[in-house]
Design goal:
Shape of chain B: globular
Helix content of chain B: 55-70%
Strand content of chain B: under 5%
Number of helices of chain A: 22
Largest sheet of chain B: none
Number of strands of chain A: 2
Distance between the termini of chain A: 47 Å
Strand content of chain A: under 5%
Shape of chain A: globular
Order of helices and strands of chain B: HHHHHHHHHHHHHHHHHHHH
Helix content of chain A: over 70%
Oligomer: heterodimer
Largest sheet of chain A: 2 strands, antiparallel
Number of strands of chain B: 0
Largest interface: A-B, 35 and 33 residues
Order of helices and strands of chain A: HHEEHHHHHHHHHHHHHHHHHHHH
Radius of gyration of chain B: 23 Å
Distance between the termini of chain B: 36 Å
């Protein structure tokens, strides 16, 4: 436990427990009172969000280690405990989860069966929180796997057209990935016990700090890393394991898409950083070219396929494949800046893409279609909606001054040092993003509206209020990412030191930073601010 | 042990307290039959079921002091109460664990049978008496210290089960199931008996301790009768005699049939589909547990030293059972048949624990069996409640839209199905985790991967049922289902669901039990060096 922890109670466990208790409470409310279930769910998710924000404010910036750690024995005989902790890498994903769930509940109402819908959403929130906070491999796996169930029911029960197929595909793909991870986790724990001579334990930090070559052979480490990586690659998703994502995103209800894009894809990228690279530094370095390549393919492939989409929601879904490619690129380039960028971009993507999904959801509510060909000239009838869409879209493209830029820029500048040619190709992806989004925008919002498109209602105040926090974050993180970065940086630096201590990898000097302004995170901040004013 | 045979016959002292859990079941079965035959009036509704539950509870209560005694830390690990029947039955943690399990299975089956039998117009004491007798046979199997006694237990267990599956007089499928089960079961018993004969021929004993203590003859190249250096056994210069190997193989065939391991599984789908549902509740939970109890006991106590001979066989059985069970389940459209195939796949998982041949493996298998007992009893219990007269309405299509018609029942079923799929926070996940841990500890990494892949395949079929219940609209007009779930069934399903969730959230409760119930493994594979 952190010695200076100001909070006298276990805030991290509360972050899991509050939504879980909320789910049970919602399940106990009478089926005939749908409004009450919604209000109760909203209250519990707001409470969780408030706790998450409190955590962020109380968090000690500049400290690399896990904070607010708490451990409770779970299964004594197997050395399994409920262990939670948070550091710079997980902090903002926790906050993001806390913010997105109330917005998802506010932003999209279910069309039927309000009670189970909200109960599943709260359970999903508990699971997502658990993944980001877990410091025990068993607990992590439990949380990683449990999120499938609520999401499966959300897609299958409240989705569109091909929902059953999409839900099934989502569940089975992810479960197949985690099947390999489970075997890897168990194997790791037993090899660790055999090698270190201690008791069986699933404690992440204990295992990671003992994994010398005498405990885990190079070959074994690579196999185990691959077991973990398959699970994360499905979740991210990395090309060619991404095929579940467009289906799941398109068929899911709006809230489902928001959470899927905003939080659940991050389970994969977070898993790579927290478990893949941290536990198996040498193997991660060895496999880095593979994952850099797959990430880069994802960037280009996602962008090209997105350009060709006829369905607006599917287009946004494929744009996620591209954006997540950047995060994987940054993660495996393993420089200070690229990792900071990867974490920051995880958060950014979790703000921008949910906003896009909400907007597409609003359009669907009005027109009952998402086909780009059937939408035209919405700008005339709904100027505010169009304006908000423009801002979010520009953030997604990565226009300087908005959050998308600061993350992508850090990733590219950091990756250039260790993964030059991959970075060169990836940069082209930024241009492609402008292509598919602007073209889609043109077709949907520009021109003379015809038929139903002329009568589209503009953004309502309630919808605007849901989007407002996301818009504020888009601008704030674009202009001034420093408070976020200074909390991420120490933990990222510690991860790199851990990799350097356990493999022959040495981080090169950040040349780019020197040229841009002399110190690391200043580069993005200065560039972003200046460009933002100009545009 | 061998010396005992030469002594004059003395009647063994009988430790009645140690036998009480078994005797209370047998006694209750006899009372049920006799009293029903003599009395003119039928008892009140639910009377038989109540009496059966009472008998099983008595069995559990009498087993508790035994459990206290055998797990007493002052007496050291692996305490065996030798008094029972002159050592023919070993009352140890392992056998008491299965006494609890068999009694729990009887209780669940009896509670579910009550409403079912009245609905089908079959109310009578026969099903209860048979379940009680069969369970007593299972308890004997779990505590047998002699292959002959194991065989006795096996037959008591099985013959009652054959009749149980043919009990539904009006359903032709039930008759077919009974015949099929009986013929194939008789075959497997013959294999088993022949196996005992060969083992006796090779080792000169049918006692498990006698087999374990058997002096291996030296290889054929050397003179017969010379003494053997034990280190030669480990170094592989001495081979298990072919006669013994054949005996082990035949015994495994017999057990493989009872636990429905591939390729001895072909009876399972037909029997589970045809037999009356409450009987299936008992067969899938109780009979399967008893089969594994016998298998584990014989392999560990009797053939622990020949682990290198049977481990590869179990490995192969496990792989085949896992894959065939889950793959064939995917194409089924009858829910009972589908669950039958899934139960085959679960047997594969338990075999993964058996294959590890370590204390962790046995403990994992026990955990799995106990967790599975509640899951499968609950699953078939839901089917028992859902079907209409003559077991109509057990097709996958009949479940469509169930969540709308009967939300609580659908949710309960979902809990059991997710647990069977191995979703975390249910007992099914921890059970899979435990057997995988045992496999990994014994360096069987590929087996662990195969098991998990088959779990994913099996997940598809559980999801198929969930899809039918939650995400499909019923065909034709929506039938208003106003039938009430009988009280006994409610209780059984509630208990099973609670156990599934509680053991999932707090596995330590069951884990402590299963750890205390392990058998002393002669060769602990986990302590062998990595290859």
């Amino acid at each position: 436990m952190h010695e200076e922890a100001a909070l006298s109670f276990d805030i991290l466990t509360s972050l899991v427990a509050v939504p879980a208790v909320g789910a049970v409470l919602v399940a106990l409310v009478s089926r005939r009172r749908p409004e009450l279930t919604r209000q109760l769910a909203l209250l519990m998710s707001l409470l969780t969000g408030a706790l998450a924000v409190w955590l962020m404010l109380d968090f000690h910036a500049g400290e690399a280690d896990f904070q607010y750690q708490h451990t409770y024995t779970w299964i004594r005989e197997l050395g399994i405990s409920w262990k939670v902790g948070v550091d710079g890498i997980s902090l903002f994903l926790v906050v993001l989860t806390g913010i997105l769930f109330p917005l998802a509940i506010l932003g999209a109402k279910p069309h039927h069966d309000s009670k189970p819908y909200h109960a599943w959403l709260l359970l999903l929130e508990a699971g997502c929180m658990g993944v980001f906070l877990a410091l025990d491999l068993f607990m992590f796996f439990v949380m990683f796997e449990i999120v499938l169930v609520p999401m499966y029911f959300l897609i299958g029960g409240w989705g569109y057209g091909e929902r059953v197929y999409a839900a099934m595909k989502f569940f089975l793909f992810t479960m197949l990935g985690s099947a390999f991870m489970l075997v890897s986790i168990i194997t790791l724990a037993f090899l660790h016990r055999r090698g270190s001579g201690g008791d069986l334990t699933f404690d992440l930090v204990t295992i990671a700090s003992n994994l010398g070559p005498d405990v885990l052979s190079q070959n074994a480490a690579r196999w185990l890393f691959l077991g973990f990586a398959v699970a994360f690659a499905v979740k991210v998703p990395l090309f060619p394991l991404h095929t579940w994502l467009p289906d799941a995103h398109t068929q899911a209800p709006t809230a489902g898409s928001v959470i899927l894009a905003g939080v659940m894809l991050k389970l994969g990228t977070y898993g790579f950083l927290r478990f893949g690279i941290y536990l198996f530094p040498e193997a991660a370095r060895w496999f880095a070219p593979l994952f850099l390549t797959l990430g880069t393919i994802g960037i280009i492939y996602g962008a090209i396929v997105a350009t060709m989409q006829k369905d607006l929601k599917r287009l946004v879904a494929y744009s996620s494949v591209a954006h997540l490619g950047f995060i994987v690129l940054g993660s495996f380039a393993m420089t200070n800046q690229s990792l900071q960028g990867a974490v920051l971009q995880s958060v950014n993507h979790g703000i921008t893409t949910p906003a896009l999904f909400l907007l597409v959801g609003f359009i669907y509510e009005r027109r009952h279609t998402r086909q780009i060909a059937e939408l035209k000239g919405l700008q005339k009838a709904a100027p505010v909606l169009a304006g908000v869409f423009t801002l979010v879209m520009l953030s997604s493209i990565g226009v300087p001054g908005l959050n998308g830029f600061s993350g992508e820029f850090l990733i590219l500048i950091g990756s250039f040092l260790t993964a030059r040619w991959w970075t060169v190709v990836a940069t082209a992806g930024v241009i492609l993003a402008a292509l598919y989004l602007l073209w889609a925008y043109q077709r949907v919002f520009h021109g003379e509206p015809d038929g139903d498109n002329a009568n589209v209602a503009d953004l309502k105040l309630s919808e605007g209020l849901v989007l407002a926090p996301l818009l504020a974050l888009i601008v704030f993180l674009g202009v001034y990412p420093k408070p976020v970065l200074e909390r991420i940086e120490p933990s990222v630096e510690r991860l790199i030191e851990h990799v350097e201590a356990n493999s022959n990898y040495r981080e090169p000097e950040p040349v780019g930073a020197v040229e841009a302004g002399g110190h690391g995170e200043g580069a993005a901040e200065d560039g972003g601010g200046a460009e933002g004013e100009g545009g | 042990m061998l010396a005992q045979t030469a002594e004059p016959i003395v009647t063994p002292s009988i430790d009645w307290a140690a036998l009480a859990p078994i005797l209370s079941l047998v006694g209750a079965a006899c009372v049920l039959l006799v009293v029903d035959a003599l009395s003119l009036r039928k008892p009140r509704a639910g009377g038989y079921a109540f009496f059966t539950v009472l008998a099983a509870v008595a069995s559990i209560i009498t087993a508790v002091p035994l459990w206290r005694e055998v797990t007493d830390p002052d007496r050291g690990p692996f305490t065996i109460l030798q008094g029972a029947l002159g050592g023919a039955l070993g009352i140890d943690g392992f056998s008491v664990f299965f006494m609890f399990a068999m009694a729990a299975s009887v209780i669940l089956a009896a509670l579910l049978a009550d409403g079912y039998l009245r609905r089908e117009g079959l109310d009578g004491p026969e099903l209860y008496a048979l379940v009680l007798l069969s369970a007593s046979g299972g308890m004997v199997m779990a505590s047998a210290n002699d292959l002959i006694v194991t065989f006795l237990g096996l037959e008591i267990l099985s013959i009652a089960a054959y009749v149980l599956s043919a009990m539904h007089l009006r359903r032709i499928q039930s008759q077919e199931a009974g015949i099929k089960y009986f013929v194939l079961g008789a075959f497997s018993s013959a294999f088993f008996l022949y196996g005992i004969a060969l083992v006796y021929g090779a080792t000169g004993s049918t006692k498990l301790a006698g087999i374990a203590g058997f002096q291996l003859p030296i290889p054929a190249t050397e003179a017969f009768g010379a003494s053997v250096d034990p280190s030669q056994l480990l170094s592989g210069t001495i081979h298990t005699p072919p006669l013994l190997l054949a005996g082990i193989g035949l015994l495994l065939v017999g057990f493989g049939f009872k636990i429905a391991a591939v390729p001895f599984h072909t009876w399972t789908p037909d029997v589970y589909q045809g037999a009356p549902s409450p009987a299936v509740v008992y067969m899938a939970s109780g009979v399967k547990a008893a089969g594994f109890a016998g298998l584990l006991r014989v392999l560990t106590l009797g053939f622990g030293r020949f682990v290198d001979d049977w481990q590869p066989i179990i490995y192969g059985l496990a792989v085949a059972t896992l894959l065939v069970g889950s793959i064939l389940a995917v194409i089924q459209t009858d829910v009972k048949r589908l669950l039958a195939y899934s139960s085959i796949s679960h047997a594969g998982f338990i075999l993964v624990g058996v294959q590890a041949a370590s204390e962790r493996g046995v403990s994992g298998a026990l955990f799995y069996l106990a967790a599975y007992l509640f899951m499968v009893a609950g699953s078939f219990g839901v089917i028992t409640v859902l079907t209409r007269r003559d077991e109509q309405g057990a097709g996958l299509d009949d479940l469509r839209g169930l969540a709308r018609r009967r939300p609580v029942l659908a949710f309960t079923f979902t809990v059991f199905l997710l647990a069977q799929a191995g979703v975390p926070l249910t007992s099914g996940f921890v059970a899979k985790f435990e057997v995988l841990a045992a496999a990994v500890e014994a360096n069987s990494y590929y087996l662990a991967v195969v098991a998990m892949v088959s779990a994913v395949i099996a997940a598809y079929l559980y999801l198929k049922i969930v899809v039918a219940m939650y995400m499909s609209d019923p065909e034709g007009d929506e039938v208003v289902d106003t039938r009430r779930v009988p009280f006994g069934a409610k209780l059984a399903l509630g208990v099973a669901a609670a156990a599934t969730v509680v053991f999932g959230l707090l596995p330590g409760l069951l884990d402590d039990l299963s750890n205390d119930a392990v058998l002393p493994a002669t060769v602990d594979a986990a302590e062998q060096p990595a290859p």
